[in-house]
Amino acid sequence: EVVVLSLLAYPLLRSLALQLHSAVTGSSLPGTHSIAFVNCLNEQIARDVARAIMDKKLAACVNILPRSSALYFWKGELEESTEILLLVTTRTSKIGELSDYVRSIHPFEIPEIISLPIDQGNPLYLRWIEENVPRD
User: Fold this and answer.
1) Residues 103 and 128 in one domain
2) First to last CA, the chain
3) What's the helix, strand, coil split of the chain in %, to 5?
4) How many domains is the chain partitioned into structurally?
5) What is annotated about its quaternary structure and interactions (predicted)?
6) How would you label 97-123 residue by residue, b for 16+ Cβ within 10 Å and e otherwise?
7) Do 36 and 7 have their domain in common?
8) Nearest to 36, CA basis, from 82, 95, 105
9) b/e map of 23-45 (b: 16 or more CB within 10 Å)?
C-alpha cells in the first residue's frame, strides 16, 4: 500500500521539484520541453492537423515546413513521395497525449510522430512554452 501511494505521488513530487528548480534558477531542466515531428501528405492536411493540435492546446507553436522529398520503405517496397513536415513545440509531458490525438485524426495508416527533448534554449522562450501549454 505504501509502495502504491509513493508511486502515485512520484509525478506530483517531480512536478513540484521542477517548479521549485524553475523558481530558484529562473530556468527549466533539460528535457522538460520537446519538439515533435509529424509528417503530412499535403499542405491542407498539415494545416488541418496543426490547427487541431493548437485547438487542443497540445502545443505552444506548430511550424509548417515546406514540401520536401521523402524516401521510405512501405510494405517491403521503396517509395518516394513529397511531404509537409510539422515541428510541434510542446511540453515533454504532453508527447503521449499529442501522439494519441494525432494518430486519431491523421489520414496516414502509420503517421510519423517522433519527438526530441530540448536540452537547452532561450529561457524566456522555454517559459513561453510553459505559459501556453497547460500542465497535465
Assistant:
1) yes
2) 25
3) 45, 30, 25
4) 2
5) Homotrimer.
6) ebbebbeeebeeeebbbebeebeeeee
7) no
8) 95
9) eeeeebeeebbbbbebbbeeeeb
Question: Given strand 33-40, what is the order of strands in its sheet?
Answer: 61-74, 77-91, 33-40, 113-118
Question: Distance between CA 90 and CA 82 in Å, rounded?
Answer: 26
- Do both 15 and 45 map to the same domain? no
Distance CA 36, CA 95 (A): 8
Domain span at residue 49? 31-132
Nearest of 53, 30, 34 to residue 106 by alpha carbon: 53
| Residue indicated by cell numbers 532561450 | 122
Residues 136 and 126: their CA atoms lie apart, in Å, by 17
Q: Does residue 13 sit in the same domain as residue 43?
A: no
pLDDT at 25 over 90: no
Same domain for 72 and 86, yes or no, is yes
Q: Give one DSSP letter per residue of 32-50, joined into a string.
A: SEEEEEEEESSHHHHHHHH
What does the pLDDT look like over 49-85, one tens digit per residue?
Answer: 999 999 999 999 999 999 999 999 999 999 999 999 9
Is residue 24 left, alpha or beta, with left meaning phi > 0 and alpha meaning psi from -120 to 50?
Answer: alpha
Cell of residue 101, nine digits: 490525438
